[in-house]
Fold this sequence. Notes:
This protein is of the alpha+beta class. It folds into four domains: 15-239 and 931-947; 250-351, Sandwich (Immunoglobulin-like), CATH 2.60.40; 376-530, Immunoglobulin-like (Sandwich); 541-907, TIM Barrel, CATH 3.20.20. The strands form twelve sheets. Strands 35-34-43-42-41-40-39-38 form an eight-stranded parallel beta sheet. The protein has a six-stranded mixed beta sheet with strand order 24-25-33-32-27-30. The longest helix is centred in the C-terminal third of the chain and has 23 residues, at 844-866. The protein is globular, with a radius of gyration of 31 Å.
Amino acid sequence: MSFKKQVLMVGLLFLFSGIFNESRCDANWPPEGTGTRFEVTRDTGISSVGREKNGNCGGSWKVKLKGQQEFVLFDIDPKDLRGKIITGAVLYFNTSASKSAPILRTGVSSVAGRWEEGFLFRYLPLPGASCFNQAGYKVQDWAYPGSSLMDVVFGHGHTLWGFANASRPDSNGWQEIAVSPDVVAARVAGLSYGFCAADEVGSEWQWKNQQFSYSLFPNRYVYSSEHFNKKPWMKIWTNGEDHIPPDRVSILGYSNEGLPPGEALVEWVTPTDKGGGKTLGFNVMYKIGGAVKEMPRYLIPMAGLVGETVLMHIQDLNLPPGKQIELVIRGVDSAGNEGDASIVTIKTAFLKNNSIMEELQCGSISNKRINSDQGNETYAIVDLLDKINLVTGEPITPRPKGYQWANHLFNRTKKKIKLQSARNETVCFQVNAKKQIDRTKAELIFPAFPGLKTKVLKAVYVYPKNGKAPCPLPDPLVPLKGQEFNLQKNGSFVCELFVPHDTPTGIKYGKLSIWNGEETMVFDVELEVYNFTLPDKLSFVPEMNAYGTADPYKSYDYYKLAHEHRTCLNRLPYIWTGKPAFAPDVKDGVFDWEKWDQRIGPLLDGSAFKDMKRANEPVDVFYLPFNENWPVSVFQHFKPSYWADEAFNIEYGKKMKNDFQAFADHFREQRWFDTIFQFYLNNKITYRGKNDSSSAPWHFDEPVNTQDFWALRWYGKLWKDALSKKRDPRLKMCFRADISYSEFGRNILWGITDMEYIGGNNQQKTRMIHDRQVLNGPVRFAEYGSANRIEHANAMTLLWCLSAWFKGADGVLPWQTMGTKESWKKADQNAIFYPGPEGPMPSLRLKAFMAGQQLIEYCTIFCDLFGVSRQELKQIYDKMVKDNHGIVDPAFVSRFRSKLAGKISDLAPAYRRSWYDWGNIRSKKGRPITLKYVTPSPEIKSNTPECNDFSPL
């Protein structure tokens, strides 16, 4: 049977009280054969918390299993198991907290990295001993530099894992946990260096007598191998022997297309094993320059089903670009037999477009300014990203002396402002007053080109809340529309210029006139229009997340303001109770689309923006109203459990699927093919402590425990199954999740989520999602966080966009963007939009998001035209930063932008609506990883929350 058919059959199984349960082993219990006792020979506690990340606990007689915070590495001597067929295994732990915090559901994984037990207590650092951050503290990484234990266990690093419910403690505190036979076999076959155990339930909760309580990561203590009479041990069953190695591996080929220099992908077929066991994994050696080296275990794939292909991503080896290497690949079966070698010669990815990179890098970026004395000038011109201290009159971040009078935009001596812009781009600059100005007016005009659209906005000053800044700082912007205004000393106003599609290329001359009573100041403005046009459809989306204020059933004002600034407002339509603020009405179980189509439709077909810069361009992303409690009540169908596939009855899942399909059918009929529709679960079980009507039984947003990731997996599989039956390649409907702790997400959501928003993105998180994209299929991701604080430089927001794009992200998302009335007085980091009596007003930071988005359009167009990857362009950028002595200021950003623009203009590309292929957000290539409950997990009843009735008051 093909893999696809097996996955389909698993999906159709209705087991227990829920639907779409993960596959469970069919074998009877106890396993066939003979069970033998194996002592745990070494073990150590591992902590992911604070300073404990570098600590060793190998000498402690008691260790902990504690959610995502503490794990246990352990091992046995497997030599007596080689050549035998393993049919089952049970791990025995003795718990020292059998009443207060016993072991519940526990996962056990193989380990793809060597480790050292150590001999210290209480997580003290010990060079050479294993800890969370390194396999050998200060000696050896777990995998690549910056990796942690989580890169070589529980699905990462090509590891195997499964979980099982623990038996209740007996009178002496002993508990039993079933372990996957494949996980044990991997250790026997040399495909693993031991075992890692984890607490899968993690935090627990209660809802008793309408009172909510939450226990965060209970300490589940167990005795270690250091204890004199309560050492952990394993019972392993074997039935027969296998001494016949797998067949020779059939290699399909290799590829280096689109990979960073020095990397490659190799694909081969899982061979047959005729000895009674099964092909479980592979051993790989590589030869380069006469030297033979062992491929790191974390890079070598485990076997698939017989005839199924596997993929190995060669990376981290510091191989030269375009280098020819020889691979020696052997299959390994579950009894440890190694097959004959298959040899293939491959070539690593080479460095492309080297000449283009050199041309882009040529010429250093100097911070020297044109000599110019301040004199008694009234106005200085600075970059949009600059921020002037109201007291000192100087930028809040260091700039060279005289910067305000001579910089990349302004020459005070010539009284000239120089701007550059592509077509369909908005550029801005600030005018800073060096003395108090009353009743002034300003106008930016281009007499010969009246089609150029200009605007003047006054900056409003707010007081930082934390008191760190010595004075008010600018953020809200108020459009002036030609009226008079006052400027305090060192206050600023912003001039904005939009260059329409049809603007001819070349130099355009204009004037900035400022009137102050009888005094008039005139600056020449020189605008260079580049010979290319930015796309109307965004290639990178700064997504303005909101939880209230903006209501599309009442007004499009906030949506329009976001759209004008090349961002996209995305308002979550429901609250903690799951009740949506805007959703189709439901009448007799059928959706009534009339009001929805009338109010939401214009956002999705673009007609809400028909008179704007990017006319008729629909919103890029849009939250759907679906959640755990709409349109199907969670309270009527939830049976208290920590595990989603045990918590719901068939009716709940069936109704949800039908409603998913109804939305897809309607969107298809309306031909809403441009917007990415997101099914996103945002609520958290801990909200119960604040609102007894809160409907989430798990942490959906920022999942913490394995139970949370498992719940997202269950809903995601429901979504995928519902939409796969009526698939339309034009329709972009995705299952989205916001993940803060992606390092603890394992491979649970592989092939499930179509789009992930990653919080606190770092090297490890980026690496994990890149590995997933290569090995499992495309998944889009964005970064979420916050815009810069008002007391910090606005360049930080632009650089956040650029940094995320370099990592491969499709967007950024500040978690909250709606200001309040108080935001006009006290600095509010979340106020990207300011509420006003005549509608919302923009902030300087919204302008910074726009500038960042436009710079990324430059990068996207450049990469497309010259065949350069994001990683290669980042190398150019990093080299330019280094040449600029590490200084990344507005002048540097301007220089980088102009260099890109020069190369693009040379080719004069024709306009495209989009330079980025969003395609279908749901990829056919990505597939869910098959994850199994380990027998006898189904026979041991799951621990459940103490909850007599989940319904609210």
